[in-house]
Amino acid sequence: MELQTEQTPEIEIIEKEDVSVGLLSKVILYNDEWHSFDEVIMQIIKAIGCSFKDAQDKAFETHVKGLSTVYTGEFKESLRVSSVLEEIALHTQIVT
User: Fold this and answer.
1) What is the pLDDT along the chain (96 residues), one digit of tens a residue?
2) Which residues, at least 6 apart from 48, have a Cβ–Cβ distance to it below 8 Å?
3) Where are the domains of the chain?
């Protein structure tokens, strides 16, 4: 008679990897007649963490041209930036 011994099963550890594609995209901000320059400037700062001067330049470009690119980077971050800008009902678009 053969004696069987219990064996500890081998445990395989699977690590979750970031498999984001790294797709580059742009957040376009459109001009409107409802928000003040200060509101737009402060929301741009909140969304992308830039200086007051950079946000002011982006807000002015948006006003003069009707739209401007306020962020260029990975798609996931573009979604976040667009979401922050839209918190105060600014109109944005993400283009890839």
Assistant:
1) 556 666 666 776 766 655 556 789 999 999 999 999 999 999 999 999 999 999 999 999 999 999 999 999 999 999 999 999 999 999 999 999
2) 55, 70, 71, 81
3) 33-95
